Amino acid sequence: MSDTVWVSSVMSDYSIGNRQGIREKFYGEDWAPPTFQLGVKPQNVLEAHLRHNRGETLERTDFPEAMYVFAENNWKRVGDLFCAGPFYAVKGSLADVLKEFDLGKGGLLEFPIYEADKTTRLPGPFYLLNFGAVKDSFVPSETRSRLFPRRTVERDGYDLWATYDLEDGDVALTAAAFEGADLWHERKLESGLFMSGRLHDAIQAAKVKVKFRFARVRIVSGTPR
User: In the chain, where are the structural domains located?
Assistant: First the structure.
């Protein structure tokens, strides 16, 4: 069992997915047009996107069926973490690292990306990142960074917080964070992507070219409150 936990703010980096030069096809739908103007997604896709961002495991049919490249120069600049429609996907060294760790009920789902003809498949492999673990070890009262309430027990029936610009030791979790998956979301903290020390160290050792913006988590005693 690793004795460290890390939180990444990568999910708050909206430059990921910007002008990637690829577009998607959802199951039962036509190919999206070859344009950087993404437009409004259907309601079912928006709902799946919200669940994806909370770390909930999705069905394969919630994700794009496939993608194609319409701007090759843009696609060549895309890193090992990218967006497949509104969802996260991985390739290269990041995918190789993630395959070796416990990602919970979800995991990596291989999917095709085609050339502009929508027929010639790129070598890949490419994987949809189907989040599969949500833990409940976040301790708001012990967290040092400023917290912004997104939901409250009084109004919504549960608590949800957001925080930004994290430094080492800002976020507090209980030791329950050491149990289970190596990659997860916290039920009461929005947009933070948490990982075990083992996974963090493997990503760093592989020199994955993704700006994860890591901060070390502080482990505290007691129960979340």
Answer: 5-9+134-220, 13-130
- DSSP E strands in 1-80: the ranges are 5-8, 22-26, 64-69
pLDDT tens digits, 56-94: 999 999 999 999 999 999 999 999 999 999 999 999 999
What's the rounded Cα separation, in Å, for the pair 44 and 101? 30
Q: What is the rounded distance in angstroms from the CA atom of residue 144 to the CA atom of residue 78?
A: 34
Burial class (CB in 10 A: 0-12, 13-18, 19+), 33: exposed
Q: Helices marked H in 23-157 — which ranges? A: 43-53, 72-76, 92-98, 153-156
Q: Are strands 172-174 and 218-220 parallel, antiparallel or unpaired?
A: parallel
List all residues 6 or more positions away from 119 whose beta carbon is below 8 Å from its beta carbon: none
Question: Could you tell me if 189 and 163 are in contact, meaning their C-beta atoms sit under 8 angstroms apart?
Answer: yes
* Structure token digits, residue 2: 């690793």
Give the integer Cα–Cα distance in Å for 175 and 123.
42
Intra-chain end-to-end CA distance of the chain, in Å: 25
Indicate the pTM of the whole model: 0.91
- The burial class, CB within 10 Å (0-12 / 13-18 / 19+), for 71 is middle
State how beta strands 113-114 and 64-69 pair: parallel
Which uninterrupted H or E stretch holds 204?
A: helix 197-205
